[in-house]
Amino acid sequence: MAKRAxxxxxxxxxxxxxxxxxxxxxxxxKTWSTRPKSLSLHIGLNSVSPAHYGGWSGDLxxxxxxxxxxxxxxxxxxxxxxxxxTRRGTRANFLAAIRSAxxxxxxxxxxxxxxxxxxxxxxxxxxEEQDKKDETWCLYDGELIDDELYLELxxxxxxxxxxxxxxxxxxxxxxxAPLTAPDAIQPPGRSKMMPPAVAMRTYREHQAFYDKLQKxxxxxxxxxLSLDPDAMLAAGRIIESSRLTSIAGECKASVVLxxxxxxxxxxxxxxxxxxxxxxxxxxxxxxxxxxxxxRFHAAIRSRLPSxxxxxxxxxxxxxxxxxxxxxxx
Length: 329
Prior knowledge:
The protein is α/β, with parallel strands linked by helices. The chain has one domain: Rossmann fold, CATH 3.40.50. The chain is 33% helix and 17% strand. It contains ten helices and eleven strands. Helix 8 packs across helix 9. The termini are far apart. The relative contact order is 0.14.
């Protein structure tokens, strides 16, 4: 018994010494106990439930590949990923995961969120959107409205860094309107835009749900959003200030969002990755890339055709975050 007690004291002493190990000049080596916490969530939907979307399944090919590849980047950077593929990419699972992250992360920590799938729209009933549309992510059993995403981001603590990569249409802030000109040139391949007819049919069949959702979110936010992001995104500028924090109800976290395309474009699916994700992976080069988030975005954008130009958007005090090496914890 005495030997076991002595062994326990010895083991405890060794652990304490390991945490206090010194390296050169007397500085303490960074350990797991002092590293910022990092969580990630990756959603990839190769289809949606026809039961909710008026018989439309929205079949795509590469979205699950995109989610798994983003999870691989997360693991390589010592993040703890959660992956939600197609049938698991439900509204309930998404909201549970992001809310868990916002409760568990504190200043200095990192949350990495990616989405690959269709983008949609529902009519805006709160009067907040100049284009009279709320943009959405098409989750498996229902759409996630951009207002909901902003509200969830506003729940992260001050000093938490949040990176959002959205490989979908309408993804600039979960961005804006589709191509409407009848002679607009569409790039070849599978678009990640929910067809407008499907979007309207889905809304009509579930109008009470989506109208209530928008009103509930506006009520929780406590006020009408004072600044519509459309105009800022249309200017094509990189925003590195806190002027737009009102969009997420005074967002205190530092949020960087890099999207798949501009407001008048479509994100394209591929055989192995979405077009945006494919070029992101090429630029990242398995971690060999060195630069800031702003330059990372510019490098990805330079590799895509003029029909698909990734957007860049920030919320909260993000200037210092924008200047960091991508995916660094």
